[in-house]
Amino acid sequence: MVADEEKIAVIDLGSNSLVLLLATSFLDGSIEYHNEHYAMTKLGRDVKKAGRLSDESMETTLAALSELMEICREEKVDDIIITASSAVRSAENSNTFLVRCYKETGMFPQVLSGGEEAEFTFIGAVSEIETRRPIVSIDIGGGSTEISWGMKDLIVSGHSLDIGCVNLNETYNLGEEYVLYKRMAAARHVRRQFAGIAGALTGWLNGRKCTVVATGGTATTYAAVVSHQEFYDRRKIRMVKGRRKELALISRRLSRMGLAERRRMPGMEVDRVVEMPAGLLILTEFLRYFQFKRFSISPNGLRYGILTHYAQKNMSRNPLSELVPVD
Length: 327
Fold this sequence. Notes:
five-stranded mixed beta sheet, 11 strands, globular
């Protein structure tokens, strides 16, 4: 027998941060969101170069995960869903990390494929949008960027590209100092990644106007910066509008700043000061490559998509087994 409501926790083990989302799922499929808790652990640091999760990043992540699990116990949640994405799926020692997660928590995180991550991110990104236009979403993570497109109630295609703000910064050193030729080389690399999906996306749009939605830490931090927020307020981030020209100007200005000056910017998340130039470069090049002039920013993304899918399954008592949609 399924209860009328359940308190659900989704923990996303990202390449840059761990995020816990608490919510209540009701029998009619509706969701009431509660608190979010963040921990910047940079699990994906150096994975691109070394091919492995470092002992230090695993220790930091496991310690943060234990703290998030303690919050779940204090909140008396009914079900916990733990997912892992780019850093874990690409590391050759991911099994070691997953076993250690099990020993710490009694649960194995579900490692999402790139396509699954893109699909769930799209579901979360469109959850608060009301439009009949085609929708294109981009989520810039630490180790990968997910690009998906479809309509409000139908995802057509989702792709995970091997570019993220952490690995792009590590490859081209964009965060410590401004070097023009490195920035240009990074931009060319990003555009080559977009070329692989260009035919499918432009062919599907076929000249139609669309709504572009950006999610993830780079996008929400940018929204906080342009809104001059002293403290992050999710309600003020929701569907902040942006223009490509303004983004390009701010991206260049921010990349020329020193770290200390960047940290003093209102709205800047301290733990993102190094990776922000790389993240904004990816977003800017995406809009330029596909000739999108405007975009909106949503605080929703992967974990919201997972919760939405969970709710649509009528609060199944075995959420992990039904987490991934069946084609």
